[in-house]
Automatic annotation (TrEMBL):
This is Periplasmic chaperone PpiD. It comes from Shewanella vesiculosa. It holds the Pfam family Rotamase. Its main location: membrane. The keyword Chaperone applies. It is a single-pass type II membrane protein.
Length: 625
């Protein structure tokens, strides 16, 4: 907990500490301090309640964390009620685990004294000023978090007590060198194999599936053919982009806009610069002396380009006599920019200091600002004026759309009439196959909401994109159910044909395997592919072949081991000729593996402890009446 405060104090203290500490306490299962436990609890663990309020707060914190992590992707996921329910269940499981750990710590008599809490607070950097505890700062942080000192200390007591038990259980986990070495040897092992693939595709033309077989498969696997919930919608749509296409803009309006906004159609003045550059070093006085010497040469009449070639630290431009490029005002370093745009053509500046060093600048040429011809920008102005007119109309109609659809919620006919649009409709779709033009999280959420489906009302206004909105209502609703045999028959037939073709490939692979086991390496119509030192994580061949090759027993001396592996469309025959020991195992690899394995052991220990406590616990999930 205090680590979270410490991290927060390094940035924007107030907001960051607030977020991190609340998250920490929510996940630590101590948010019950923040409110009273009223109503039906979310769970009762050995007689101790986890309030619905506590669960909701922890769930909202977890929701915020995932949203921050996933960004816009989370909006689509949040529209899936089952996904969000799964997250909420995970949060409840964590709160139950925390409660069990707290109870175990209490049963073992683990305690945290007032002095320990006081010491932790005093030593916490977030509560210090200039390395010393600052009581005013401490109280200010608590006030900002909305806590009283008593409740804050109680939270710390729970958190620190729990850490005592967890550190004792999982904090002492370690990995032996032998364990890490054994894992390295297993992971680094390679195998010399030969293999052949029997493709099932040629067998497809020789198999057939009867109606009875298809029906039997359907009857035995009917749970696989659940149809998702679907809905067909009526909708009224307003899109400013479509309105803009139909907006009338006269030539006079376009010309007037051009004349009134000529400044928008001016190309910026550009200047061609050259410079002699003295790069900044640790000795600024020496840098300035060098720049003064260069300036003296120019004052004495030496050619700017020649001096640039010999004295400039900018080697690239020096080759061109200091010539740089065309610049618009505001592009270069402010000091450089000001000097360049204060010169007359051919004039040389005095010494200019920038963050990079010293410059002496010469203005080689000027490209004056020019107005873009009316005809060159006419189309652009027309589009701008069309958009402006369309937006004016759009905002007015959007208000009517919202008002009318709300005031007359059981039909869209009047709404369409009010906004001079038409009622359109969609085909049936599920959450997973939304029409492309409506594939928007807010649209999906509204389409399957209780407001639209259960109450049969118009939805609120849904923004599909900037200046593009829609209101929907249910036209047809199809609940989730079992798809008919007729609808899925063709897919079943194809699947069973593939299964039969795979059986044919399997039988052929068995024939090849029998020949190989009999010592016949010359196979009719097939040949083995040799692969030396196949690694466990090889991605160059079918993963099923690799996985099987490492499951086959190592061959005895002067022999091989042979087996088959099922592939997506066929079978493979695999011959293991040799098992090669791992190479390159050293102390660094073993150390790295130990660091990677230790947290996994600790996590396994923690889960085992929680599972053991759960097995002996009485956990109830009361349901509200």
């Amino acid at each position: 907990m205090l680590e979270k405060i410490r991290e927060g104090s390094q940035g924007i203290v107030a907001k960051t500490i607030l977020v991190l500490v609340i998250l920490s306490f929510a996940f630590a299962g101590v948010s019950s301090y923040l409110g009273s436990n009223t109503g039906v609890p979310a769970a009762v663990v050995n007689g101790d309640e986890i309030s619905a309020n506590e669960l909701e707060q922890a769930f909202q914190n977890e929701r915020s964390r995932i949203e921050q992590q996933l960004g816009e992707m989370f909006t689509a996921l949040a529209a899936d009620e089952s996904y969000m329910n799964g997250i909420k269940q995970n949060v409840l499981d964590r709160l139950i685990a925390d409660k069990l750990i707290d109870q175990a710590a209490n049963k073992l008599g683990l305690r945290v004294s007032d002095e320990q809490i006081k010491k932790a607070i005093i030593e916490e950097p977030a509560f210090q000023t200039d390395g010393k505890f600052d009581n005013e700062r401490y109280l200010a942080v608590l006030r900002q978090l909305g806590y009283q000192t008593t409740s804050f200390r109680n939270m710390m007591r729970v958190d620190m007590t729990r850490r005592q038990l967890l550190n004792a259980l999982v904090g002492s986990e370690f990995v032996l060198d032998g364990e890490a070495k054994q894992l390295a040897e297993v992971q680094g092992q390679t195998r010399d194999i030969r293999y052949l693939v029997v493709d099932s595709t040629p067998f497809l033309s020789t198999v057939s599936v009867s109606d009875e077989e298809a029906q039997s498969y359907y009857d035995a696997n009917v749970s696989q053919y659940m149809s998702p919930e679907k809905v067909s919608l009526e909708y009224v749509e307003l899109n400013a982009a479509d309105m803009a296409k139909n907006s009338d803009v006269s030539d006079e309006e376009v010309k007037t806009y051009y004349d009134e906004n000529k400044a928008q159609y001016q190309t910026a003045e550009k200047r061609l610069a050259a410079h002699i550059f003295v790069a900044a070093t640790d000795d600024d006085s020496a840098d300035k002396a060098k720049a003064d010497a260069i300036e003296a040469k120019l004052t004495a009449g030496e050619d700017f380009a020649e001096v640039a070639k010999t004295d400039s630290d900018d080697n690239l431009s020096a080759q061109e006599g200091g010539k740089l490029d065309w610049f618009e005002q505001g592009v270069m370093d402010p000091a450089f920019d000001e000097a360049l745009f204060g010169l007359q053509k051919g004039q040389v500046s005095s010494i200019v200091k920038s963050e990079f060093g010293y410059h002496i600048i010469k203005l080689l040429d000027v490209q004056a600002s020019q107005a873009t011809a009316f005809e060159d920008v006419k189309a652009k102005i027309v589009a701008q004026l069309q958009e402006k007119k369309a937006l004016d109309v759009f905002y007015s109609l959007q208000t009517k759309l919202a008002d009318t659809s709300y005031e007359i919620p059981d039909t869209l006919a009047e709404t369409a009439q009010a906004v001079n649009a038409k009622v359109q409709s969609t085909a049936l779709f599920s959450r997973d196959d939304v029409p492309a033009e409506f594939n928007n999280p807010e649209f999906i959420k509204a389409a399957f909401s209780d407001q639209v489906l259960a109450s049969g009302l118009n939805s609120d206004v849904i923004e599909l994109a900037p200046n593009h909105v829609v209101v929907v209502r249910m036209k047809k609703h199809q609940t989730a159910g079992i798809m008919s045999f007729a609808d899925v028959k063709s897919g079943i037939v194809e699947r069973l044909k593939q299964d039969k073709a795979n059986d044919g490939a399997r039988d052929k692979a068995a024939e090849y395997m029998a020949q190989l086991k009999a010592g016949n390496d010359t196979l009719t119509g097939a040949s083995l592919t040799t692969l030396a030192k196949l690694g466990r994580f090889n991605q160059d061949i079918d993963q099923a072949i690799t996985n099987k090759a490492f499951k086959i027993a190592a061959p005895a001396e002067n022999s091989v081991t042979i087996d088959t592996a099922a592939l997506a469309t066929g079978y493979a025959v695999i011959v293991v000729d040799k098992v090669n020991e791992a190479e390159g195992i050293n102390d660094n690899l073993i150390k790295s593996l130990k660091q990677r394995i230790a947290p996994q052991y600790s996590e396994a220990d923690y889960r085992a402890v929680v599972a053991s406590l759960k097995a002996d616990a009485q956990i109830e999930y009361p349901v509200a009446d």
